[in-house]
Amino acid sequence: MKNLKKLSFLFVLMTFVISCKTMKDSSSNTVTGKVDAIEAGKDGYTAKISTDAKEVYLATISIVNVGGPQNYKQLKIGDVVSVKGEIWKTEDEKHIKVTEIVSVK
Predict the structure, then answer these.
(1) What tens digit of pLDDT does each residue of 47-95 get?
(2) Has residue 60 been placed in a domain?
(3) Number of structural domains found in the chain
(4) What is the pLDDT of residue 43?
(5) Pairing of strands 44-50, 80-89
(6) Residue 91 DSSP code
(7) Helix (H, G, I), strand (E, B) or coil at 79
(8) Beta bridge pairs of residue 101
(9) How many CA atoms lie within 13 Å of 19's alpha carbon, on the beta-carbon side?
(10) Which superkingdom heads the taxonomic lineage of this protein's source (predicted)?
(11) Domain residues for 59?
């Protein structure tokens, strides 16, 4: 009985560790596309990015999330960008909290 409890505890612990690792890896998703619109915010802005696959992402770009003013860039409508960050979806929208602006063309 004690071995079963220890084995169960070990299984739960391993599941938790793997789950945390998966969540951490999901924060490095990349979105590449064209900036269609920009809406100013308090400490940054939201850019509407359309990808080649006809997906639309609302990218939240703030000074704090990209690691400070040295990494922050003001995008313009028409820019082709590649950004990394944490992606989540609502019923009808896809969002990305940008943690890195990879490229701007």
Answers:
(1) 999 999 999 999 999 999 999 999 999 999 999 999 999 999 999 999 9
(2) yes
(3) 1
(4) 86
(5) unpaired
(6) S
(7) coil
(8) 83
(9) 6
(10) Bacteria
(11) 27-104
